[in-house]
Amino acid sequence: MRKDNKRNNISQLKNITEERLEPINIRGNALVEQNKDGLVKVNQPHYDLLKTDLNLMVAIPCYNTEHSIGDVVKETLKYVNNVIVINDGSIDKTAEIAAQSGAQIVSHCLNRGYGGAIKSCIEAFQLSDADILVTIDGDGQHDPNEIPLLINPILEHKADLVIGSRFMDNGVKIPSYRKFGISIINSLWNFGSKI
Predict the structure, then answer these.
(1) Least enclosed by CB within 10 Å: which of 9, 86, 116, 151?
(2) Nearest to 28 by CA among 50, 43, 49
(3) What is residue 50's DSSP assignment?
(4) In terms of DSSP H, where are the helices of the chain?
């Protein structure tokens, strides 16, 4: 699938919305889904992502992550061939270590912040021939070994967009200031996207 086919495939994916399941939770190494009848289905991903016909890209926005970025890139390369690190004006050896670990590097001369780094991730994806973009953080907070779980709903045409969250498990304690911030961001996102 190349850039000229992306629009056609996106419009095809939009036609699949009627049969959507409720949000998908990841529990351990399995996906847990609940359908309209309340039935729960556990689904192990069965794809060798390096052998699919899809071109997958993982973009990693980073700022001063020299202590973790090498391991993150190496773990990510177990699942995809195309890893791009957005070096957001780091003053340490983030870019050098990421490149030595096998990533392509896009460097900002100045720190643009997380939003600017994410924008560069999306721009790199748009300029590539990749079919699916996954973003993970370079500080090790996101486990690259969960990439197959994350994109499994897309590969099975159950979702067009998948967002991972470490807050979905009821046992996770979220500080009240974070809950407030997340609710504001969600409200603005929903308002801006007309959901």
Answers:
(1) 9
(2) 43
(3) G
(4) 3-14, 69-76, 94-100, 113-127, 147-155, 176-193
CA angle 33, 37, 38 (to 5 degrees): 50
pTM score above 0.85: no
Tokens found for residue 98: 């990421």
Q: Does domain 3-164 have CATH number 3.90.550?
A: yes
Max intra-chain CA distance, the chain: 53
pLDDT tens across the length of the chain (195 residues) = 444 554 444 333 333 333 444 444 444 444 445 555 554 444 445 456 666 678 899 999 999 999 999 999 999 999 898 999 999 999 999 999 999 999 999 999 999 999 999 999 999 999 999 999 999 999 988 899 889 888 888 888 888 888 887 666 656 666 787 778 778 877 777 776 655
